[in-house]
Amino acid sequence: MIRANMRGRLSRADLQLVILLLSRGSAHRRAYLERRLATEGPDSLLDSPDLLERLLTVRTMLVPSEALFFYVVLRHSLRGAGVDDRDLADYLAALLLDFGQRDRAWRIDWNDDQRHRYLVDILGDLEASDGERRFKVMVHLGNYALWLAGLFPDYIAARHLRKGGPDVSYYDTLGRRGFGMASDHRLAESYGLVAVLRTAAERFPSVRAALNGVSDRVFFPNHRSADRIIRELGIQ
C-alpha cells in the first residue's frame, strides 16, 4: 500500500545537498540555512522557489536521491497548479517511485497475482472484491488513472485520435471516483490517507495537470506533439 511518507525517507545527506544547492557557495548563507533547518525543520527549505531548478541542473558529484528528487518535483509542480498540500506531494512522489518499478503499476499491490492494464479491468475487479482488497482496488483505480493521464497524456491523446480510445476526461472521471470512494472507506483512516485521498479526488484535474507538467519537463523533455503544445498554451 502506497503511503504519504516520502519526506520521512529523506536522509541527512539529502538535506545537506539541499543546503549546498541553496547556499550557492556562500559560507554565510550555508550557516544561515543550517540554522533554519535546525529550528524550522526541512519543509521551508524544500519549498525554496529556486530548489527545483537547482536540482534539475545539479552539476556536483552529489546527486539527489530518488526520494528527494521526486518529492521536490511533485511539491513544486503541485504548488504551481494551485494545490498546496505537502502530504499529497508525499503520496504522489511515493506513487511515482513505486509505479516506476517493474510491473507495479499493473498490480493492486506488490504481492497481488493479477495484472490490470486497463481501467475497465480494475472496475471489474472492484465489483468482485470486498473487505481490504476492495479498498485497495479503489485506491488503485485512482492511482492508475492518475499515472496514465498524468505521465502519458500524449499516449492517451494519440489513442483517442487514431483508435477512438477514451480522452483524458474519462481518466479524470474514473480517477476521481476511485480516490473519492477510497477516502470514504473505513480503512482510509487506518492507513492515514483520508485527507490525501479526498484532496486527490476533489482536485484530480489540477493534480493530473501538475503531473502533465512533470512529464513534459522531466521525463519526456525532448518530445513534441500537438497535444503538448496545447497544454503549454493552457488551452482546455
Short précis:
The protein is mainly α.
Topology:
Blueprint: H1 12-23, H2 27-40, H3 43-46, H4 51-56, H5 66-80, H6 86-99, H7 119-128, H8 131-151, H9 153-163, H10 168-184, H11 186-190, H12 194-202, H13 204-219, H14 226-233
Radius of gyration: 19 Å
How do the SSEs run, as a string of H and E? HHHHHHHHHHHHHH
Shape: globular
Distance between the termini: 34 Å
Structure annotation, total helices: 14
Could you describe the 3D structure shown?
- The chain has 236 residues and is an all-alpha fold.
- The protein has a domain of 134 residues.
- It is built from 14 helices and no strands.
- α8 packs across α13.
- The longest helix has 21 residues.
- The protein is globular, with a radius of gyration of 19 Å.
- It starts with 11 loop residues before the first helix and ends with a helix.
- The mean pLDDT is 93.
Give me some keywords for this one.
236 residues; mainly alpha; 69% helix; globular
